[in-house]
Amino acid sequence: MSKDSESGRYVYCIIKAHEEKISFGNIGFQGKEVYTTKYKEFSPVLSDIVFKKFDVEDEEDVKTHSNVINEVMKEHSVIPVAYGMVFKNKKLVEMSMKYGYKAMKKAMKIVDNRVELGVKVILPKDFDRNEQKLDQCKSEFTERLKQVSFDSKNLILFSERLLINASFLVEVDKVQAFSSEVEQLRSKYDSFNFQYSGPWSPYNFVDIHILSRQKGGFR
Amino acid sequence: MFILDDLLLRALGISVPGLDFVSTLELLENLAYKELYNPENIKNQIKENQMLYEFGEISKYEFENTKSRLMEQLKFIERFEEMNLSVRADILT
Fold this sequence. Notes:
heterodimer, A: alpha+beta, Alpha-Beta Plaits, 2 domains, 5-stranded antiparallel beta sheet, 4-stranded antiparallel beta sheet, 9 strands, 25% strand, disordered N terminus, B: 4 helices, 74% helix, elongated
């Protein structure tokens, strides 16, 4: 039995690289090497894997997926790939790269040299809501942070306590400016709770679908 | 038979007050089920639970308990959807 028929290829993300192969070490699933192959100017970052079901509840696996991406992000701009994306063999990875090439080119223009930063603003428990004031505060936040970012996305307000849940796509060299803007807002509205997170790979700004009708990330 | 009669009468533009009331009750029941068994609501509660834990408003014990209860509910709803239990088959027609 050939190696290809025994295992699949787990794809973590896509980067732009000139090298035929880059190795990121044995940091992949099942302790396997994370490496790149090449398709034109793009390189999928992958590792060989014995087929298994990837469950979002499996915190260890989710952590491995994001650790690999964080490691790759230290040196490269990435097009993130949805968690659990396993291809049967190398040939299918190449096919997906071929079909997704145009979309990837477009996506890379958006994410190149940029990272995603997340901002959540949470109202204190038993907060006396004044909708007008909250709206003002909301627009001040969004306007000020938009000025130091390339793009932004409002995400679902999954709790009544959430005032803002947004992701911002920020140039790598403007992350410092963005952070100090967040700090200023935090001091101005010190009764609110803040959660400032990142840098993340830009999941909320890339949505490529290949060989699938399902939503979310590169599929 | 009842559903068929109801639909036929409606198609003919005939409204029978008693049947209309039953239909409204069924509609309300369906809406209540949809709200109760909406996976998005549960997913939002899971995220809220995580957020409250991260902000130190609930203990690890409370967080873990709520999380496992919500995950159970979510699994149940997903099974419920897979089995299409919300679709009623009228076996009398």
